[in-house]
Amino acid sequence: MSSADPFDGLPNIDSEKLQPIDVEALAGPDEPRHPPRILVLYGSLRERSFSRLASEEAGRLLRWYGCEVRTFNPSGLPLPDDADADHPKVQELRELAEWSEGMLWVSPERHGAMTGIMKTQIDWIPLALGGARPTQGKTLAVMEVSGGSQSFNAVNQMRILGRWMRMITIPNQSSVPKAFTEFDDAGRMKLSPLYLRIVDVCEELVKFTWLTRGRSSYLTDRYSERVESAAEVSRRVNQSTL
Fold first, then answer.
1. Which residue, of 42, 78, 219, 241, has the fewest CB within 10 Å?
2. Against a cut of 0.85, is the pTM above it?
């Protein structure tokens, strides 16, 4: 947030209506107070990628809400099983996933589904690393852009993936139809109800992250896993023969 003007870079925001997060209403007195750590993934490599532009708008908002935001550039990420896990881009993605406390996934809808680029990123994030789960209990928001009429195929698929990755997917979501009409020549999103929905998604993601991150270990503590050793869990969720 700029010390001179907290709304610098947010020209479409009504400064009287955008409210800071009331941390004390969400986090317990003994829970951490560092800025929420949010990882942003987007699903297109085009030079003028509308999923990237939408993710950048969201990133600006998340920073205003006090988050530390990092965005992964999927360029150069190999296909799953086409490289070893020690590939530099794979390592970068996995380290960011472990670092994060919440995520935002933004995909174009292509042929009625999320893009392969989006799915590749998620497929490289394992359910477990040495018995630890890098995504379990973390928050997730999903957004999509499309070239035609409004659709929810990509966000619905990403919700399924979020559940599979044991993430807490927030109720709100964003779908931007005819995305080529929603951004100006500078790549900034125009003011519209579609932009306001992205603000809503970001606000809700930050609130849910503050609410759950200090409690995620307890919320995801399961009897079935307490009776397994870490080695047994790792073997079960990392089946190399699949």
1. 241
2. yes
